[in-house]
């Protein structure tokens, strides 16, 4: 048996440093945990049980790339999710036990949004409904509609903008 540490040993030894590194990029310890876990899966898949040359550097590079990708994705998605008023209205519409007051308050806006959705191209409408009403992530939408991730983001953003315009929101 070799005296060289296994890839798992390398990962376990550097896990805390990897978490700190990812956390400094993504700004959240819980998201950093996800990044490091995904990095291990990719690292393990790339190594297929063999020891990689300069494994530690490679592992840190995987964490860096995943963390930067995650940070960019969060920034893009925040452009869609930042409108709290729209989010509150969407939640009220999908609430199956809405109070009569809530129904009366949002009835007209709901009709406007439904009309706005009917005006959208089918793929754009589907992307919006999957994201806002179904809770699907942009990656899931891209896979389901067989489109790129940036296009899925753009379709949802276009639908949100169209609905806002129909409601007269800024």
UniProtKB/TrEMBL annotation:
InterPro entries: RNA_pol_sigma-70-like, RNA_pol_sigma-70_dom, RNA_pol_sigma70_r2, RNA_pol_sigma70_r4_t2, RNA_pol_sigma_r2, RNA_pol_sigma_r3/r4-like, WH-like_DNA-bd_sf. Gene3D superfamilies: 1.10.1740.10, Winged helix-like DNA-binding domain superfamily/Winged helix DNA-binding domain. Keywords: Sigma factor, Transcription, Transcription regulation. Residues 112-163 form the RNA polymerase sigma factor 70 region 4 type domain. It comes from the Bacteria. Residues 11-76 form the RNA polymerase sigma-70 region domain. The keyword Transcription regulation applies. Belongs to the sigma-70 factor family. ECF subfamily. This is RNA polymerase subunit sigma-24. It comes from Thalassospira xiamenensis.
């Amino acid at each position: 048996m070799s005296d060289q540490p296994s890839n798992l040993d390398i990962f376990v030894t550097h896990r805390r440093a990897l978490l700190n590194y990812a956390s400094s990029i993504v700004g959240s310890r819980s998201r950093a945990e996800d990044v490091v876990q995904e990095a291990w899966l990719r690292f393990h898949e790339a190594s297929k049980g063999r020891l990689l040359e300069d494994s530690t550097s490679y592992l840190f590079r995987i964490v860096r790339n995943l963390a930067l990708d995650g940070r960019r994705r969060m920034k893009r998605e925040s452009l869609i999710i930042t409108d709290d008023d729209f989010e509150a209205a969407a939640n009220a519409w999908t609430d199956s036990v809405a109070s009569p007051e809530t129904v009366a308050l949002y009835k007209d806006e709901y009709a406007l949004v439904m009309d706005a959705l009917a005006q959208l191209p089918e793929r754009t409408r589907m992307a919006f409904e999957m994201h806002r009403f179904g809770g699907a992530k942009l990656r899931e939408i891209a896979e389901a509609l067989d489109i790129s991730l940036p296009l899925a983001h753009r379709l949802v953003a276009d639908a949100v903008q169209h609905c806002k315009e129909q409601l007269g929101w800024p």
